[in-house]
């Protein structure tokens, strides 16, 4: 007679190819049921759009069939729960992963990449939040077509709590909401830092799989405030391929490695990697140089997350407030692939620490 223990033993031979450990050790197998002529169980993947889903399912079926033989039906339910390392976070207890999006230079497309990553992650079924902390040019409200909106405030135990605006299934708060769009507010370091702290402590984020933070370009007080206020899962570096941008991206990466910051780098995104005319997508013109971001990631031995081409429609989508990832075609696909690769790197990162938590309540 086959038991649940036999099934778990069989599944402990199946490895998650990314996380390099077996599914039972990773706590990914739930609800094992053994009935006459039927075995069922659930596999809880670590990202909603796991590219290895089909392979893992097949490996599970093969492993279990070796124990049961061919006459037993095997039912496998594939679900997902984004992992976290934060089992004891006093601020933002419902937020599983905080991801900083940074660049060395301004204008390399950091906000464009952040907004598209946010909607592409949300499209996979993940719960996503976005804080626009770019004091020099808070462009997220325009990119999400909500620049004239104001987040509501509610009172909880006598405290004012900001309710993030929700657009395209992303909850967002921007430092731009604190000043009228046409005003020339000069954010002093302490003012900006206290605004960011408020976005963490006095906002109703609820449960999120990923909270993205669009940082100002370069290095600033904001970066320090962020790491001193919340545990950051990792940073994504956005760069364009030319030498002057790479030199600054290099500095940005060095900053995250400093002992007082110490945030792991999840990878590099190469934006404006090549120019492509919309009507001739196979024509690629490397106007800013080729593979600069890729080479940078190799130099620092961090993952390369992907290339985004320079395409007119990406700029138009940003200006019109409907991120390119929400449309169809190769440009949207590039952002969707980027989001999947990032989610995968976050899962890999989380699996490297022993205290993996699969659910936060
Ligand atoms: N891949 C791309 N193709 C076409 N246009 C792009 C692309 N990436 C960004 N842009 C455009 O370049 C401009 C600058 O982008 P964005 O505001 O995202 O940069 P940034 O790095 O966030 O700037 P900063 O942080 O200095 O405010 C925007 O008009 C945006 O639409």
TrEMBL record:
Which residues does the UniProt record annotate as the domain MIP18 family-like?
Answer: 5-72
Tagged with keyword Iron-sulfur = yes
Give a single Pfam family match: FeS_assembly_P
Query: Record's InterPro entries?
Result: FSCA_dom_sf, MIP18-like, Mrp-like_CS, Mrp/NBP35_ATP-bd, NUBPL-like, P-loop_NTPase, YlxH/NBP35
GO MF entry, a single one? ATP binding
Identify its protein family: In the C-terminal section; belongs to the Mrp/NBP35 ATP-binding proteins family.
Assembly, per entry = Homodimer.
Biological function: Binds and transfers iron-sulfur (Fe-S) clusters to target apoproteins. Can hydrolyze ATP.
HAMAP family associated with the record: Mrp_NBP35
Q: Report what the protein is called.
A: Iron-sulfur cluster carrier protein
| Species this protein is from | Ohtaekwangia koreensis
